[in-house]
Automatic annotation (TrEMBL):
UniProt keyword annotation of Coiled coil present: no
Protein name as it appears in the record: M28 family peptidase
Pfam families reported in the protein's UniProt record: Peptidase_M28
Phylogenetic placement of the source organism: Bacteria, Pseudomonadati, Bacteroidota, Cytophagia, Cytophagales
Record domain Peptidase M28: where: 272-486
Organism: Dawidia cretensis
SUPFAM superfamilies: PA domain (SSF52025), Zn-dependent exopeptidases (SSF53187)
A biological process from GO: proteolysis
InterPro entries listed in its UniProt record: M28_fam (IPR045175), PA_dom_sf (IPR046450), Peptidase_M28 (IPR007484)
UniProt GO MF annotations: metalloexopeptidase activity
Keyword check for Signal: yes
Signal peptide positions (record): 1-21
Domain of life: Bacteria
Length: 503
């Protein structure tokens, strides 16, 4: 009996730690991911010739052709209709026209005194009652009574801190929202950032409706807030900080807001690029590996280097996906292919709002219920200042959010093969950068598909022309790509499909 108990314990221990001993087959194909191949591909994708790979522009189409050729060479299948590697994504770009708000006869214009964020065309001037809703909390709105079909001004600490107030305003059926930033320097930076980002047009998957007077928000400065509300800022701030039971906000006399948002809507065509590798006995289940191959294009105006090459963001993730595809495709050619099918997908429009992955999950080529996991690679070629002198590391985000099983597999695979320092700083849902919601894995996670997001952190060259191939640490990049490979290998080949945790 004692021997039987000991045998059961040993078998259980081996089963629970089956990744602790290296699988020589996995190791053979993981070793195919090399720094030299990564550099060769990235030197093309992040070259000046591709002009920063802006969504829908010539350089991005060149990148798509390069990726497609790579998939063809590997023998991957094009899984879209007609065996195409391209999933066509039609986007709508709303180019700002005549946009302003008025207080009396004074006009406040877009990208100067105010910033309009949205794609709605108001169909001419619109006039609405305007009320001050303090910080936009539920108790602030409760002071005001109904705000249906009214415009509201909400004081926010930064442009990042408006989601909850916005949700409450929309829930209360406010027709237009003005977000007041009381920091003059921060507002000036905001104007410059949005002018660069939105001046050429905001992109969306949904065609903007004509005469959509409530589709969008205005960011406004303190000077603008005092004019449209006809009150000194001191009085507005005092009312905001008063005990809500005193009803100070209700005592701020309503005014009238007049605004206009004119938009020129154009169609922009782009593509997700997909390479499919069929599995064996579990081929109906799918493991997805993603990165985004778009970047932000060229700077407008100025001197010197104007091309944002995006070597790290996300050229590094794109070439990692290509190398994982090579490793799995080679394994299949040699009779060691994955049991589950693999989809290697380079998505478009991430920089414009996760649009390509959003489109895919709304129009999946393979059923989402058969999709086991998404392993998303977005910026894995550099070090951030926090890890300047650390051991080789990578930030891991979201692995435990939906599946404890996936988290444990990812940890075990790393300890067995690559031994990177896994940093979970950004995995904290209270972290102000909210990175769990800011890359393409999020559109899979929204559909209850377990994910892991691999990331190297924010560095000084983020979204700058200096994000170049010469600054990539290719040995570190190859080790990170291998870490993703070994987790993908285990998920694709294990007997039981990993499961999302029960809620």
């Amino acid at each position: 009996m004692k021997k039987l108990i000991l045998l059961v314990v040993l078998v259980s221990a081996l089963a629970g730690n089956r990744l602790q001993a290296q699988d020589p087959v996995a190791k053979k194909y993981g070793d195919l991911i090399t720094s030299s191949d990564l550099k060769e591909n990235l030197s093309v994708l992040a070259s000046d010739a591709l002009e920063g790979r802006e969504t829908g522009k010539r350089g991005q189409k060149m990148a798509a052709a390069f990726i497609k050729a790579h998939f063809e060479e590997l023998g991957l299948t094009g899984p879209v209709d007609g065996n195409s590697y391209y999933q066509a994504v039609e986007l709508y770009t709303s180019i700002p026209g005549d946009i302003y708000i008025k207080a009396g006869q004074q006009k406040f214009t877009n990208f100067e005194d105010v910033v309009f964020y949205g794609n709605g065309d108001s169909g001419g001037e619109v006039s609405l009652p305007l009320v001050f809703a303090g910080k936009g909390r539920k108790e602030d709105f409760d002071q005001l009574g109904s705000v249906e079909n009214k415009a509201v001004v909400i004081l926010v600490e930064s442009e990042e801190n408006f989601r909850d107030p916005m949700a409450i305003a929309r829930e209360r059926k406010a027709r237009m929202v003005l977000l007041w930033n009381n920091n003059a320097d921060a507002f000036k930076d905001l104007v410059n950032q949005f002018k660069s980002y939105l001046g050429g047009g905001a992109l969306s998957l949904k065609k903007p409706e004509a005469n959509s007077a409530s589709s969008g928000i205005f960011f406004i400065s303190t000077a603008t807030a005092t004019k449209v509300l006809n009150q000194p800022s001191e009085k507005l701030l005092k009312a905001t900080n008063e005990d809500t039971k005193k009803g100070a906000l209700k005592k701020i006399k309503p005014t009238t807001l007049t605004y206009k948002t004119a938009m020129d809507v154009k169609v922009l065509k782009t593509d997700n690029v997909l390479g499919y590798l069929e599995g064996t006995d579990k081929k109906d289940e799918l493991v997805v590996v993603t990165a985004h191959y778009d970047h932000i294009g060229k700077k407008s105006g100025g001197e010197g280097d104007l091309i944002n090459n995006g070597a790290d963001d996300d050229g590094s993730g794109t070439v990692s996906v290509l190398q994982l595809a090579k490793a799995f495709a080679t394994a299949k050619k040699e009779g060691k292919g994955p049991r589950r099918s693999m989809l290697f997908m380079l998505v478009t429009g991430e920089e414009k709002g996760l649009l390509g992955s959003d489109y895919y999950t709304q129009h999946p080529v393979f059923p989402l219920e058969k999709t086991v996991v998404d392993l998303n690679i977005d910026m894995v070629g550099r070090r951030d200042p926090q890890h300047k002198d650390s051991a080789p590391y990578v930030y891991v985000i979201g692995s435990d959010k939906l599946s404890t099983e996936l988290h444990n597999i990812n940890e075990a695979a790393n300890k067995t093969y690559t031994n990177l320092l896994f940093d979970y700083t950004y995995n904290d849902q209270n972290h102000p950068d909210r990175l769990y919601y800011r890359s393409d894995h999020w559109n899979f996670a929204k559909n209850n598909i377990p994910i892991v997001f691999y990331f190297d952190g924010i560095h000084e060259d983020y979204h700058q022309p200096t994000d170049e191939v010469s600054r990539i640490e290719f040995d570190l990049l190859s080790k990170r790509a291998q870490a993703v490979f070994y987790t993908a290998w285990e998920v694709a080949n294990r007997e039981q499909r990993i499961q999302a945790d029960k809620k």
